[in-house]
Amino acid sequence: MLTRRRADGSLYTRRIATDAKLIQLASVSRTDTLARLSKHDRNHSDYLPSECLVYLLRAAVGDDDLRWFNAICSALMARCALNLRWAVNAGVLRDSEGVREDILSEFTLKISEALHEDPEQLDVFEVAFDLAFAALRTDRIRSEALRQRRQSTFNPQPTDADDDPDRWILALASDDGSDVVGLYGAEYEIFRKSVLAAINRLPAAEQEAISLRLQGWQISSEEADMNSIAKHCGVDERTVRNRIRSGVKRLIELTQAERP
């Protein structure tokens, strides 16, 4: 029995087609029903909407029939797994198989809690299963995509003794990515924003040197009429490079610490 209400106060109701299928099931044996549970082609005359499977799960719990419950649950999980094979792929997320397993585990837990603790949570699955599962799936995919962007594998710190940290700073001038940083697209955008924000947390000398460099100032110049960071700060070229180097190191520590 559906008990959940919509925002306008009306009770949730199943689709007419779903109720028609349930009426049919009332007149067939469990053996026949079990055979129909394995049908995945929605155009097949024996196909049972997932809403029917949710209804049968509730009935199995009410009858305290564990064997029948497990059969229905296995069929429902098989459908969800098939859905996730197409919805979660390696082209979108790393470790797509792990993400699929996490979504199935979350769905299983949600169904279990709804069956035994909060029946109203199950109403939405019995009324519009595809939409409810898609919402759960999409939330998990979005959160995982965000987590992976934040934890992207990269090595922004120069490791070669001949590599100048100044190259790393100049790489941040790009709008869409950099080979130096090793990030592109959305990942790069998120990383770049976090670094630019972290510059304001640097010691004044490092902040000034890096900010001016990002604005296109030269580190030093022998030409009397050309301004430079060294001239502006009243220090030599080596001091400016040391400030940039220490600032880069500090920026990396700050941005890495913010990653979950």
Overview features:
WH-like_DNA-bd_sf; mainly alpha; 260 residues; RNA_pol_sigma_r3/r4-like; two-stranded antiparallel ribbon; Arc Repressor Mutant, subunit A; Sigma-70 family RNA polymerase sigma factor
What topology emerges from the helices and strands here?
Layout lengths: L15 H10 L4 H8 L12 H14 L2 H22 L8 H21 L3 H8 L1 H22 L14 H7 L5 E2 L4 E2 H15 L4 H11 L14 H5 L3 H21 L3
Antiparallel strand pairs: 1-2
Proportion in helices: 55-70%
- Work out the strand percent: under 5%
Number of domains: 2
End-to-end span in angstroms?
43 Å
Strands in their spatial order, largest beta sheet: 1-2
Q: Work out the radius of gyration.
A: 29 Å
H/E element order: HHHHHHHHEEHHHH
Structural class: mainly alpha
Q: Report the average pLDDT across residues.
A: 82
- Oligomeric composition of the shown chains: single chain
Number of helices: 12
Can you summarize the main beta sheet? 2 strands, antiparallel
The best one-word shape is: rod-shaped
Number of strand segments:
2
**Low-confidence regions:** 153-162
Describe this structure in words.
This protein has 260 residues and is mainly α. It folds into 2 domains: 16-150, no CATH class; 165-257, Arc Repressor Mutant, subunit A (Orthogonal Bundle), CATH 1.10.10. The protein has 12 helices and 2 strands. A two-stranded antiparallel sheet has the order 1-2. It is rod-shaped and about 95 Å long. The two termini are 43 Å apart. This is Sigma-70 family RNA polymerase sigma factor. InterPro entries: RNA_pol_sigma_r3/r4-like, WH-like_DNA-bd_sf.
